[in-house]
Each structure stands twice: as C-alpha cells, then as structure tokens.
Design a protein that fits this description.
By secondary structure, this protein is of the alpha/beta class. The protein is 45% helix and 18% strand. The protein contains eleven helices and eight strands. A six-stranded mixed sheet has the order 2-5-1-6-7-8. Helix 2 crosses helix 3.
Length: 304
C-alpha cells in the first residue's frame, strides 16, 4: 500500500473514531495536511522544540485538529507532536471562588484570562524548550466537573524534531485598549459588569503574565469563526459530544453537563474577547483559516 493510501486510511479511521463528517475530511485534504508539512519543515530546521499557538473560538475544531496532527505527524513526517491545552491550566474551583469573593463574582466561572494558572503554564512551556528536561508534567482539568483533577499527564521528550501545539480560545490574543472597556459589550456585561470591574481585571491579566506566555510562541495559527453567533451553536454541539463520550464510562454516566440555556449563558463570558480576536488576530497570526458556520474552511490567509 502506498504512503498516500496509508495516509488516507488513517484519516478515514480518525474520522470514524471521532464521529466527524465530510467537512473535516475536506479541510484536512485542502488545507491541514499542507499545514502539517509546513510545521514539520520548521521543526526539522530547529535545534529545539517549536511551540505553535492554535487559536480558535469554543467549538471551532482546534482540539480535533490538534489531536489529528499529534497522531498523523509522527507517522508521516517522523516528527513528535504534543498537544498542550490552555484549558488544562484552569485554576481550581476553590481558587476561583476566592477570586470571585475578592475581585468579581464572574471570576468563579472558568475561561477568561485571570482564571488560569499562568506560572504553571509558563513552567510547562519552558520545560519543553529546556534541553536538560526529559519530561513535562501537565495538569488535567475535568470540564464536566468544572475542577482540576489530581491526575497529571507526563509527556516524554525525545531527540526527534518536536512540535508543541498549544491550543486555546484566547491563545495569542492581545489585551484591549482601555477605551474599548468603557462600554459593556453586551446585555450580559450590562447586567453583570456594568461598572467594568470584571472586564478590566481580565484585560489587565491578558496584558500581564499572558504576554510572557505568548512570547514563547514560534508560530500562531487561527481558526476564525464567521461571527460570535456561530460559536454558540458550536459550543452546544461540543457539550453534547462531551457528555455523550463521558456517558460511555459507567462511573461518569450520571454527570449531566450543561443545558442549552446554561451553554448560552456560559459563552457570554467569552463574547468580548472572541469578537476582539476575530477583529485583530488575523493580522497577527501566521495563517488564518476563515470558517463558515459549518466549520468548512472558506479561505486560508497568510500574514504578509
């Protein structure tokens, strides 16, 4: 069997295992395989692991793409590809409750800058770059339980060319200008943060330690949604998949996940910075994939 046939067979197996459709197949064939080839060339030319930021709104498919690349690239290119999700570095529920009490109630909700353990994230990324470190320890966050677990994931490094895919909804996003914070971005902010304390704190965090994280990126890529309204539909679909997968495990079958209404309320926490990312990140990213509402890539744009 030829290499092309083996690659196609792997893609079809991946699609079946993940319950994906023809849209993912078309995106991989038209864009993402070529993207993998570009990353492999960069990794092979580098004397250390390269860190690639992958930005995408909730439910845009960044985690699925990351998993596909992490499995495909070692087989096709002989390049190690590890996935690091910003979601695994959320603060514990207890710590977020303390933030909610001392700063603003909305900080009890995971997601926005200021609700991540940034020092631990910096340590993990630095360990990938440091030649003397042989393995990297990454925490594991349980989204359905909305809390950190006691489990950790240990990633073994090797001498092969290596790519670290650092994926997350706010990866690479710069802070907003102070003037942009003056007016609530939605009825949600008007009702919950009319005085601007929450959004100012989030923006201050984004312009602080998160800058040190994003400086470590060797490359930045973006899955750009057509509008924020599409993100709501994507996140509902993501929650359904998350619950269905968890219910396959008898010990976790009772975890209900969020209702459609709860998902709608949850994603409002991300509206401001998601819209900001849609506006500014294509000028900062090395490549941007313009998605339509069904996640089909309409266009691939490169930074000039």
């Amino acid at each position: 069997m030829s290499c092309d046939n083996l690659d196609q067979q792997f893609l079809e197996t991946f699609i079946q295992q993940e319950g994906l459709n023809d849209i993912f197949r078309r995106n991989v064939t038209d864009y993402f395989n070529a993207y993998a080839h570009r990353l492999a060339q960069i990794a092979e030319a580098s004397s250390r692991p390269i860190i690639v930021g992958l930005n995408g709104a909730q439910g845009s498919g960044k985690s699925t793409l990351s998993q596909y690349l992490s499995q495909m690239m070692p087989m096709q290119f002989g390049v190690d590809c590890h996935v690091l999700s910003i979601d695994d570095f959320y603060l514990s529920k207890t710590t977020r409750k303390r933030l909610a009490a001392s700063v603003h109630p909305l900080l009890a909700i995971r997601g926005v800058p200021g609700t991540h353990d940034v020092p631990r994230l910096l340590d993990a990324l630095a360990d990938f770059i440091e030649p003397s470190v042989q393995s990297v320890t990454v925490p594991i966050f349980d989204k359905l339980k909305d809390d950190r677990t006691r489990k950790v994931h240990k990633i073994q490094k090797s001498a092969k060319p290596t790519i670290v895919l650092f994926e997350g909804w706010c990866v690479g996003v710069p802070a907003q200008r102070p003037l942009s914070l003056a007016v609530p971005a939605s009825s949600f902010e008007f009702s919950n943060d009319n005085n601007g304390v929450w959004r100012s704190y989030v923006n201050e965090c984004l312009g602080g330690d998160y800058v040190d994280v994003f400086k470590l990126l060797d490359r930045l890529s973006m899955l750009k949604p057509p509008c924020f309204e599409a993100v709501y539909d994507w996140r509902v679909d993501q929650e359904i998949r998350l619950v269905a997968r968890r219910r396959q495990n008898p010990t976790d079958a009772s975890i209900p996940g969020m209702s459609v209404k709860q998902v709608g309320e949850f994603v409002e926490n991300f509206r401001r910075l998601t819209c900001h990312a849609i506006e500014v990140l294509p000028d900062l990213a090395d490549e941007t994939w313009e998605l339509q509402a069904d996640r089909l890539v309409l266009e691939e744009r490169f930074r000039s």
